[in-house]
Design a protein that fits this description.
The chain is of the alpha/beta class. It has one domain: NAD(P)-binding Rossmann-like Domain (Rossmann fold). The chain is built from 12 helices and 11 strands. α4 links the parallel β5 and β6. α1 packs across α7 and α3 runs parallel beside α4. It is globular and about 50 Å long. The structure holds NADP nicotinamide-adenine-dinucleotide phosphate (NAP).
Length: 275
């Protein structure tokens, strides 16, 4: 069996690749910077990527480097799904984001979810909450670095049940290899943490976050536009922070423990391992 891992150079894809390797699965790791070249903006790269592939782990890029638009990639991914089905792929595991089932069909990742669910493919959808790894390798790290370790976010005093990307990868491997057709899993960590609590925990760790300061959405937008973030990405992230501020990212859900038969990794454990 050959498994195609998309976004294989990213925070989740590289963990999925490593964990599939450890299970001796034949992995095709693809993205623009990976050994197998896959560019959603260049359909000419797609057929070779799919050659001999049985199962696919699919991620629609969210634009986390912040400096370019990824708008429009959703429709490319939908076309890719049709090609994959035509080329004999049997199963697709799609990762989107917590709460995506409530988004309108015009939201790109929701459009991909609906297209997959209506296809004849075997499918599973994973919807993770915010990653711990955003603090070391993502937008939260970039924001803290820009303000001497102070996270200035429009998230009030809301909490988030952050998750470790290694647990997302572990669930991904289980659903790629086991029978989870037609299932939708909401993936969260074991605790809900406010950004004040996150910053306090980080102060005794190598993660360079010292404090949290709630700011308004207009202030956030003008700050990150000033940092050179793409306006499309600013809109996306601002919407995500509004979702957090409304409390929607707070619930701790049982799906990871149900699939893995163990508790998800804790934030304290993640920080201890960064030492
Ligand atoms: N960060 C979070 O807390 C969070 C929470 C929930 C859901 N998500 C979702 O997670 C996904 C992002 O996953 P991630 O954080 O693991 O990725 P990431 O670290 O942000 O890296 C982006 C990945 O997408 C690939 N990519 C970007 N543009 C591409 C293109 N045009 N063609 C092919 N590949 C492309 C990149 O590879 P190359 O540069 O090598 O092409 C890279 O592997 C998004 O769908 C986001 O909505 C994120």
């Amino acid at each position: 069996m050959t498994v195609l891992v998309t976004a294989a150079s990213g925070k989740v894809g590289r963990e999925v690749r490593a964990q599939l390797d450890a299970r001796d699965v034949d992995v095709r790791a693809a993205s623009r910077r990976s050994a197998i070249s896959l560019d959603w903006s260049d359909p000419a790269t797609w057929p070779a990527v799919l050659e001999g592939v049985d199962r696919v782990f699919l991620i629609v890029p969210g634009g986390d480097d912040g400096h370019r638009s990824v708008t429009g990639l959703g429709s490319a991914v939908v076309e890719f799904l049709d090609l994959a089905q035509h080329r004999g792929v049997g199963r697709v595991v799609l990762m989107t984001a917590l709460g995506m089932e409530y988004a309108p069909a015009e939201v790109e990742q929701r459009g991909v979810e609906l297209h997959l669910q209506r296809s004849g493919l075997e499918w599973t959808i994973l919807r993770p909450n915010w990653f711990f790894q955003n603090l070391t390798d993502g937008p939260l790290r970039a924001l803290a670095d820009a303000h001497d370790g102070v996270l200035r976010l429009p998230t009030g005093d809301a909490a988030v049940s952050f998750i470790d990307t290694r647990d997302i990868a572990a669930v991904t491997v289980e659903v790629l290899l086991g029978d989870h057709h037609g299932r939708e899993y909401a993936l969260t960590g074991p605790h809900s943490l406010t950004f004040t609590e996150v910053a306090a925990a980080c102060r005794d760790s190598p993660v360079p976050v010292e404090a949290y300061e709630p700011i308004s959405d207009p202030d956030f937008r003008s700050t990150v536009l000033g940092l050179g973030w793409h306006p499309d990405y600013v809109n996306t992230v601002s919407g995500l922070f509004a979702t957090i501020a409304a409390g929607h990212a707070e619930p701790v859900l049982p799906d990871i423990a149900d699939v893995l038969c163990r508790a998800p990794r804790s934030f304290a454990g993640f920080l201890a391992e960064t030492r």
